[in-house]
Design brief:
CATH class of the largest domain: Alpha Beta
Largest sheet: 7 strands, mixed
Helix content: 40-55%
Order of helices and strands: HEHEHEEHEHEEH
Number of strands: 7
Shape: globular
CATH architecture of the largest domain: 3-Layer(aba) Sandwich
CATH superfamily of the largest domain: Flavodoxin domain
Number of domains: 2
Length: 250
């Protein structure tokens, strides 16, 4: 009987010990899981942070590149504008004219507008009156000057132009008097150096052509590249002037 009781006690003791060992093993395993999850979480956060940093770096690099491209494009545009301005200034044109009755002035103004040119009027120190211009009267001023070439040296209020060297093309306009350029123009032609300039004569007349007036002025100037001129009637349209300029290549 005592042996049975002792066997039962031993069996119970053994069972309790086995149960305790199994519980300890489960707790240890369970306790290790949060640590593993925390490590996995840290690894994921590290990976995500690295990815975010790389993406931020890439975006910043792209933004910088875009800004650099915009800056380059802007600088290029400014340079193009500056070059265009320099090119425009380097090819300035001037329309010089003497007008006795206003007809040449009208044509000169139209040419200046079409060619984007400056205007310069030649004015005699002693202006011509209507009676002075009456070529039918043998005793009029122009008739006497025509008969006496020495008296054709007409003094002008101004015979030179400011910044003359900046002009590449010079138009010279005048009425036709007895088949030649009105002599108040002579003083301007003699007073200036046309070297390196393109010179375009033009005249106004009711019926007379430009004749040899341009060639005579060229001989008087002694310099410049003189083109063949043309005659215009008073009231010549802007379209006609622009067509003439295109034909000249100007």
């Amino acid at each position: 009987m005592k042996k049975r009781i002792m066997a039962a006690i031993l069996a119970a003791t053994l069972l309790i010990g086995l149960t305790a060992c199994g519980s300890t093993t489960d707790e240890t395993t369970t306790a290790s899981d949060p640590t593993a999850e925390s490590a996995d979480k840290q690894d994921k956060e590290s990976t995500n942070n690295q990815s975010t940093d790389n993406q931020s770096s890439d975006n910043q690099s792209t933004d910088n590149q875009s800004t650099d491209n915009q800056s380059t494009d802007k600088d290029s545009t400014i340079t193009d504008i500056e070059n265009a301005a320099v090119a425009k200034d380097s090819g300035k044109s001037l329309v010089v004219y003497y007008s006795a009755t206003g007809n040449t002035e009208n044509v000169a103004t139209t040419i200046a507008e079409a060619a984007n040119a400056d205007l310069f009027e030649l004015e005699p120190e002693e202006p011509y009156s209507d009676d002075d211009l009456d070529w039918r009267n043998d005793d009029s001023r122009v008739s006497r000057e025509h008969d006496n070439p020495d008296s054709r040296e007409i003094k002008l209020t101004a015979a030179t132009v400011d910044n003359w060297e900046s002009y590449e093309t010079v138009f010279i306009g005048y009425p036709i008097w007895w088949g030649i350029a009105a002599w108040p123009v002579n003083g301007f032609v003699k007073a200036n150096d046309f070297t390196g300039k393109t010179v375009v004569p033009f005249c106004t007349a009711t019926s007379s052509g430009i004749g040899e007036s341009g060639e005579l002025l060229q001989e008087m100037a002694g310099s410049g590249n003189w083109l063949e001129g043309d005659r215009f009637r008073s009231g010549t349209s802007s379209d006609d002037i622009q067509s003439w300029l295109r034909d000249l290549g100007l």
